[in-house]
Amino acid sequence: MSTRKNFFLQFNEMPFFTSETINAVAERFEIPRNTVISYIQRSIKDKSLMRLKRGIFATAAYFEKQRSNVEYAYAIGCKLLEPSYISRESALQHYGILSEAVNTVITLITTQTTRRFTNRLGIMDYKNMNPNLFGGFEVVQKDFTYLIARPAKAIFDYLYYRIPRADLRSKDKVLHSLDEFRLDYEGLGQKELDSLFELLKKV
Hints:
Elements: H1 4-9, E1 17-18, H2 19-28, H3 33-45, E2 49-53, E3 56-59, H4 60-66, H5 70-80, E4 84-86, H6 88-94, E5 105-110, E6 115-119, E7 122-128, E8 137-141, E9 145-149, H7 151-160, H8 165-168, H9 171-180, H10 190-200
Parallel strand pairs: 5-7
Antiparallel strand pairs: 1-3, 2-3, 4-5, 6-7, 8-9
Helix pairs in contact: 6-7, 7-10
């Protein structure tokens, strides 16, 4: 394994990998640390390697195969800042409740500080949520594994950052806001609506 390109070939089937993974492989092949650092820097420069976040990478070869797969972006979003789950605009668009979401922005909820990462997948936008309100999501395991808010929680999270907290406690004002923001909630069913109003009682 004498060349940089050969070194990174073995990562081409990984959705993402960390600095620790790179170092472990380099150690196995007795590649000096300075050489590995040079490999990373040069690969980022020629765009054959993507830095998703400090210490987390993906190869351009893998990215190109998955660039149109939104679930890949969801999985990466949940990995870059843990714990977090897909919610707000992205989840509402996923369920067909909101049709005007921006595809280049992946929206998430976290218990960590509000943050935003930008990489070739787009923008990963994280909003801080009180740990007592962090929940209402499910694990999706398909080609990729990620966490996504259930419909009622996705609506709750969306409204939580858009209308005054006092209005969240008023059923009439919440229903007005749902109409104002053009959320297609009528197909949710009574069970999900009941779940939404139960969540709102916790605010």
